Amino acid sequence: MFSVGGVKLAARTEDVGGVSPWTESIPVPSRTPFVQAMLKRGNQVMPVYDLASRLGSPVQGDLLLCLEARHLDGPMAICIDADVPSLETVDAAAIRPNDREDIETLGTVTIGGKDVAIVAMQRLGRSRQDAVRS
Q1: What is the pTM of this model?
Q2: N or C: lower Cβ tally within 10 Å for the chain?
Q3: Is the separation of the CB atoms in 70 and 17 below 8 Å?
């Protein structure tokens, strides 16, 4: 579980490559919705998916974090709130469909008494919703 702009979200552990301190991204021209920058980490260069803009909620905190998503097209960086993400074990049977239209999800699960959307990390930037909202 992680947050973007105070919005609690979840991702499957197999869809996350890691979490590290955020470093400045490099703006680049792009026609891909919500991807307008690249992030260099060591020898690796990753596109930055602007999940905060997609949700309409700016990231919160002074020391932001980088969530590395395992996307179908390769690693993708996502800037997340400074709140340290947590691991939660969830029974697959507890995942329910949802009707969110602001982001592609795999469903919703209740964690700590709150409904949390599970972001479809592998499909960010590929859905019709991205093209419509950009």
Answers
A1: 0.87
A2: C
A3: yes
| Token pair belonging to 67 | 């969530």
pLDDT band at 98 (very low <50, low <70, confident <90, very high): confident
- Counting DSSP H helices and E strands in the chain, the numbers are 2, 10
Q: Which residue has the higher pLDDT, 42 or 25?
A: 25
The CATH number for 83's domain is 2.40.50.180
What is the C-alpha separation between 83 and 107, in angstroms, rounded?
A: 23
Please give the tally of structural domains in the chain.
1
Hey, which residues does 19 pair with through a beta bridge? 67
- Burial (CB < 10 A; 0-12, 13-18, 19+), residue 67, is buried
